[in-house]
Specification:
Layout lengths: L2 H12 L7 H13 L2 E6 L6 H7 L2 E3 L2 E4 L2 E4 L6 H10 L5 E3 L3 H8 L7 E6 L7 H10 L3 H4 L2 E5 L4 H16 L4 H12 L3 E5 L4 H5 L5 H9 L3 E7 L2 E8 L2 H13 L8 E5 L3 H15 L3 E5 L2 H7 L4 E5 L1
Parallel strand pairs: 1-2, 1-6, 6-7, 11-12
Antiparallel strand pairs: 3-4, 3-5, 8-9, 8-13, 9-10, 11-13
Helix pairs in contact: 1-2, 5-6, 8-9
Amino acid sequence: MSTDALAYVALLDNLSIACYHEDSFQNILIMEAAMARYVITDSTAYLPADILERYNIITVPLNVHLNDMTYKEGLDISNDKFYHLLRSSNSFPTTSQPSAGEFLAVFSQLKPDDEAIVIVISAELSGTLQSAEVAHHMLSIELQERISVVDSRFAAMGLGFQVIKAAEMLEVGYTRPSILKALAEMQSKQDIFFIVNDLQYLVRGGRLSKTSGLVGNLLKVKPILFVRNGHIELFDKVRTTEKALVTMLIEVKNKRSILERLCVIHVQAPLEAAKLKRRLEEEFRLPTTISEAGPVVGSHTGPGTLGIAYC
């Protein structure tokens, strides 16, 4: 039996529906199997390949521009190669959202009875949501009604957690309205805290005010940043990396009662990420993943970024 058919069986069980004759029930399963349900996201979710494959998640790549070259994230260049180019370049990278046409090409592959939930990077950080919405409005009314576009209000694994949640719920047969409600509730409980080695990446990329960047570098403090209302804000300033990590851990401890998932996010800092992962697992006894942010997010935070995402 297919995954979609199993999902329909789970849904029927949840609703306590058991009044179908065998023939009609088989017909229902055939109809359900013909309808596919998808989660679509963008490349800044940085989900591992096994998750993408397991849930058949569709990814639309953002673009990163460096040395007069344009790369589609996750397709044209590896993380290691990009960060090598970044360190050796005198140019500063820029990024751009996918075009509406790229989203339209994905949406147009859906069959009339298919459904999709599109979850993308915060609209405060990227124009990706706008591209997805423009493409959505170009569809027929019938198809528009079967596709929901969601602003995650996050990036990296803050977005990734929502994509996984939606995929898990789709797999067991939840309706789109139920999933959208769960995502809204999830967003209110999520946080990402992180530190960077050089604030100039955030300042030059327009994701943090020049005042915050200059003050941080001049005073040699270690700013702790977080995502609030969809954009990056200064949370606190401390003197050392260790104090920054302790402060972030305290914030996670304050949410201990609601913690479900933990992830260490980093940019070209695998050893530091592994150490932080061990600290989190020892403290919270929860499986903790590690996710390296790719060129788009890394262009704005820089190598050495280290953070914690949780929900």
